[in-house]
Amino acid sequence: MNWEAINAMSQLVSSVAVVLSVLYLAIQLRSSTRVAKVAAQDAAASALRDFTKPLMENAELGRVWRAGLEDLDALSPDDQARFFHAAHQFLKALETIHFHYAYGLLDVQLWNGWRELLRHYVVSPGIAHYLERRGEVFSERFRKFLTELEPVSERLTVGTLLGKENRRQPVVYPNHEP
To answer: Which of 75, 86, 153, 164 is buried deepest, with most CB atoms within 10 A?
Structure first.
């Protein structure tokens, strides 16, 4: 075997090694992407669980949340402040979920459920009022997304699901032209 043949053979082996390395990296990247998506989906569920758990465990906080969604004036100033803190946490959790979706880290079917939940809550009088007052604490992308949500025909939140509140109030989106 001459030196040219040896050189050609070593180049072939090197080329095959490079191709195998690239394939290995592609497989690892795909696996890593799957892990990131699962982590983002778990973070989304955890964010909302972390928000709703105190509402289930503390009847007074649950009452403040339900009442504040439908009629802030029914709450004392201290309870209105508590509602605003809860509204901020709720919307920040959903903003994070939206961020995960926008960057392709959230399954479309899961995102559709979160979006549907948001469509109902964002038009509740309490959340709409909060967004009018404090909307600037959210990213421009999220605020734009909120204004582009398709209106719901009947608002269903924890404040209206049991049928004890007026569920047929007109639905008005914050910063949304009819």
So the answer is: 86
Amino acid symbol at 55: L
d(CA 137, CA 92): 9
Q: Which two tokens stand for residue 125?
A: 């009088």
Query: How far apart are the C-alpha atoms of 53 and 103, rounded to whole Å?
Result: 27
In the chain, where the domains are located: 35-147
**Contact present, 172 and 123 (Cβ < 8 Å):** yes
* Burial class, 140, CB count within 10 angstroms (exposed 0-12 / middle 13-18 / buried 19+): exposed
Per-residue pLDDT tens listing for the chain (178 residues): 687 777 777 777 777 777 767 766 766 666 666 677 777 677 777 888 888 899 889 999 999 999 999 999 999 999 999 999 999 999 999 999 999 899 888 889 989 999 999 999 999 999 999 999 999 999 999 999 999 999 888 888 887 877 655 544 544 545 544 4
pTM of the model: 0.72
DSSP symbol at 159: T
Cα 12 to Cα 22: distance, rounded to the nearest angstrom: 15
Query: Distance between the two ends of the chain, CA-based, in angstroms?
Result: 82
CA–CA gap between residue 66 and residue 72 (Å, rounded):
10
> CA–CA distance from 59 to each of 74, 91, 166 (Å)?
17, 21, 21
